[in-house]
Amino acid sequence: MEEQKRILKDVFGESSESEGEEQQLLEDSINDDPSQRLNAKNPNWEQIKEINGLWLCRDFLSPKRQSSLLSEIENEAWFTEASHNQAMRFGDLPTWATELSQCVREAICFSEYVPGCADLAVCHEDTKKACLLPSDLLWREPLFDQLIVNVYQPGEGISGHVDLMRFEDGIAIISLESMCVMHFTRVETEAFNVENKEKEDFLNMKIPVYLTPGSLVLMWAEARYLWKHEINRKPGFQVWEGQEIHQQRRTSITLRKLCQPM
Q: What CA–CA distance (Å, rounded) separates 85 from 150?
């Protein structure tokens, strides 16, 4: 409990008697049962070793929290018409999205990996454990201020892309409902021209990441800027461990931070 208080104090800061609301939020967070938000007090993170800055937490949200999150999205009435399958919000996010951002931070803080390290090289040298998110990203305020919710019907996915440069480093993607495979492919840059077959093979290499309902993907550094991500849900493309995945409706939540104007 003391360790949890320390982490939450780091997140919310010190409170004084004149800051009653902040103090109440801190107490509520401490007394809250983490299992109602996170699926485990020590979330199981997996580093995608082929791509620097790409992390997967398969057990991010409990089934109960997934269900309530879908209800909260439904209550927004964003998708009452079949033609509407995407909703964006900037700045002040819905309360449930702000709470979800807090859950992302908690999942990092409660992990066995080093939260808030300066850079990946320092983490490996000093602790022999990888860093989930650099400190300047983990402790920025707000952690995220832009939200996209997408609803995909069977067969619908996303084409390969790198998120726009108008957003800062550090992006979180939460998957709900249908499982799927997200593929990552290397971006060709001026500093990485194709000169031989080995480089061409590297550019054509696809790294598959299996996303289960309630999972969280973190992308920063190379994963955010130097790799495209896509989800092709056409027949024959959604295969994991030799078995084609039965596609159902999938909802995704993407959380990002807008770049500050110069």
A: 6
R_g of the chain, CA atoms, integer Å: 19
| CATH code, domain with 170 | 2.60.120.590
pTM over 0.85: no
Domain tally, the chain: 1
Q: Which domain holds residue 54?
A: 48-110+131-256
Residue 21 lies in a domain: no
Q: Is residue 15 part of a domain?
A: no
Q: Could you tell me which residues are beta bridge partners of residue 186?
A: 227
The 8 Å CB, 24+ separation contacts for 35-41 are 35/62, 36/62, 36/64, 36/65, 37/61, 37/62, 37/65, 37/99, 37/103, 37/106, 38/62, 38/65, 38/103, 38/106, 38/107, 38/110, 39/63, 39/65, 39/214, 41/110
144: in domain: yes
Structure tokens belonging to residue 198: 């080995």
Q: What is the pLDDT of residues 38-76, one digit of tens each?
A: 555 678 999 999 999 999 999 999 999 999 999 999 999
Neighbours of 19 (CB within 10 A): 14
**Sign of the alpha-carbon torsion through 212, 47, 140, 9:** positive
- Closest-CA residue to 178 (of 211, 149, 139): 211
Residue 119 falls within a domain, yes or no? no
